[in-house]
Every structure is written in structure tokens, then in C-alpha cells.
Amino acid sequence: MKQRFLQTTIAALMCALPAAVAPSWTAAQSLPTLGDTERQELSPLMERKLGEQIMRDIRRNRDYLDDAPLLEYLNDFGNTLLAARPEARGEAGYDFFFFAVRDPMLNAFALPGGFIAVHSALVLAAQNESELASVMAHEIGHVAQRHIARMLGQQGKDSLLSLAAMILGALAARSSPDAAEALIVGGQGVAAQRQLNFSRDAEREADRVGLQILRDAGFDTSWMIAFFGRLQTASRAYSDALPAFLRSHPLTTERIADIQARTRDQRYKQRADSLDFQLIRARVRVLQDTSPQGLRDAMVAFDNQLLQKSRPQTAAAKYGLAFIALKRGEHAKAQALLQEARVAAQGVPAPSSAATSSVILASLAIDIKLAANRPAEALKEAETARTQFPLSRGIARQYAEALIDAARYDDAVHYLRDQAQLYRQEPQLQEQLAKAYAAQGKQALQHLALAESYALSGSLSPALDQLNIARKAPDASFYDQAIIDARERELQALWREELKENQKGHY
Length: 507
Description:
By secondary structure, the chain is an all-alpha fold. It is built from 24 helices and three strands. A three-stranded mixed sheet has the order 1-3-2.
């Protein structure tokens, strides 16, 4: 039986959204608090640290969708929900991070400390942004109410070992199901049943929290009930594949009825979807399976979509076909299809974006020029996009890439060093800086930048290796050596601390 990405993680963390959880939340003051006395068992700082540790493993997994336009869309969308209810960030004021994993199951899940994932299949199943918002708001509810921290508090710190084993098992599932099963079984024990006993209350609480977020953010709550029921039906198809402890608390009509009761008196609020929602769904359809057969299947889906004769659907389908052409190396075809997508998008009525104001369309235009080895045109596209979308992190990195491709290495280094000072937690900037330094022949600085990239990604051992290479570089100046020595001391201290924590079983 084929394992699914993070399937066991979802069950273990008990924040699975086996049913498009469509949310609900009463006023913050009236929300029930489950086990306040247990919160001291896992502090918000430790909860965030645990989430970051898990994310390092997830980011290294091949089914983590490290795609700039997708990540940017999800995080902008998620932060729109949080802006409507700032208190949902919880007492720790978490900086939430939303991401996607490639998985054919309809699901979403929350990790400790404000990390929230949606499955690629769920993005495709959502028929509008209100449905997607209902899922993400529910998961925000799990984090806001600190359900994971409470669960771990009930079970004691030893449960972190159980959780870590389940995470490792889920990540190993694709490459070796047998090894994954061994890791999972070794980490389960009695804790699984205790998680189940807590999950029903936690899910209902997240429903209440999520519904209020959904409503305050201006989304149509009526769509949530339809999506909830659709996911409930879909989950039955997976019943044989899910772990037993997840099957023991299936989605029920009780939860649907509860949400219907809470939304019955709400006035109908129609909300038009953004064009970017349709574009990102097209992008996810391609990213979900980039094999030759997967791309052929996506083409069939886009051809069928064109038959709907709807401008948003036409723009999205043309965009999807352009993305496929890019994946196949058909650059001229990709450019032509993208232009058709832009023409179709110009007729999309407000509040959807026009073609020239879609960051997703602009990003693909730059990628096509870069892939076609047309650096001057790529740089022109990137400069225009950077003016239109000054806050887009994806466009900023594409601009840097265009500078490097255009052999403007000094400009690239200057720009990237400024960006790295402003956005200190982005390892991609350090990777690009290393590439620019390499083009300049600056070996010591190249490996220093690579060390920073590894360190920001949580890979301390490779970071220390890069510092050692930088120290031996023939162009390492006295000043460079001083920086290397200082940074090495810092990373070695962090490395020793991490080893000490692992030996204590904190993770």
C-alpha cells in the first residue's frame, strides 16, 4: 500500500483537516481553554523551536513544494486571514508560515509554532477562495488555541520522542514504506489513544475559531459547508489507507450541523475570487505531477477548462499550458501561451487583477526569458515586475537571478547584500550571493555565503564545512579570516547545543 506524504504526521499531530474544516469561532473571550495548567509543559518558545526543527526535515523532502509563486500566494492569503483576527496569532504572536506539499489526499495540517500546510490536491479541490480560506482558517484555529502544545503537555516531554519518530516515519514513507512503518510503530505507544481522546474537542474548537476568522476576513461562509461535506465524502475513499487511530475519529454530520447552526443567521456575502486564485490552481495542477504522463494529464484538464468559455478559466488554462511548455523546454510556445493568458486576463472584472497586475503571470514571464537564455529581456521583465510588486520576495530573487544571468555581477552582489540585510532569514539570498561571488572568482566570499545559506536552513554541519573551505581559500583576507573565525564559534556553539538537546530527547 502506497504511503502518502506526511499522512502519519497529520494523524500524530491531530490537526488533520480530514474534511475541509470549515471553521467557526466565537468571540476570543468566550473560547474554551483546554487545560491551561498544562501550557507550562511546552512553552511557546519551545513550541516554535519544535516546529522549526520539523520544518527543516520537511523542506528537505522532495514533496515539499518549494515554489516561490505558490508560497507567496499562500502566505499573502493566510496573512489576510490573520489580519482580520490578529489575536489568532496567540499569546506568542507567531509569525505564521503557510506552505504546500505534493499529495493526492484532500487534507491540511498544522505543526507546532505556526506552520500550516495544505495538500496540493486540496488546493485543486477548492472551487473558490472561500473554500480554501475555510480550511486555512481552521488550521489557524489549531495553532491559536495551542492544541499541539496542550496535547504534548498532557503526555509529558517524552511525547516529543514519539512525535519525532512519527515525523521521521512520515518523511521516510515515500522512499521506504517498511522503514517508515518501523519508525512509526516504535514511536506510537499509548500516546496515540490519548491524542484521539483529545482530538474531538480540539477539532470542534478549531471549527469555532476558524469560522470567526473566515467571517471577519469577508469570505462567504456558506461555501464552507459545501466543501466540508464534499471532503467528508472524499475521505471515505481513503478509509482503508488511513491509520487506524485516524479512522477512529472520522468527520461526522455532527460537526457539519454545528457549523450550519452557527452560520444560519449570517447574511449572505458574495465574494469574487482573485485571478491569482485561478492561476495558482493551474500552477499547482502542473506541480502536483511533473512526470511526462502527469503533464499530459494536466494538458487534458486545461483543454477541458478552455471549453467553459469563462475569462478567468481561460486565463488560468492558458497560463497552465504555458507553464507546461516551459517545463518541456518549449520556450517560444510558452511565451505565446502566456501572452494569450494575459489577453484573457485583461477582461476579468474587478476585483480580480488585470493581467499586468498579476505577480504570478509576471513571474512566469521572467522564468521563460531566463530559461530561453535571453538575459537582457529577462532583466527588463524583472525590472518592470519589481516596480509593480516591490514587496514580492519571489520577484526580488528573480531580479537578482536576472542580474547574474546578464553578467552584471557587481550589481547583483550589491543588490543581494542589501536584500540579505533586510531579509536575514532567507537562505535563497545567500545561495544567490554565493553564485554571484563564484562568477566574480571570489572563493572565500562564495563559501562564506554558502555557509550562511546552510546555517539559515538549519544544516549546521554543512555550514561549518563551508566555513572551513572558506578559510583555506587562496583569496581569504585577514578580515575574511576574522569573520570566519567568529562565525565558526557561533555555529559550533549552536551545534553543541543541538547535540545536547538531541541527547536529552527533547526532539
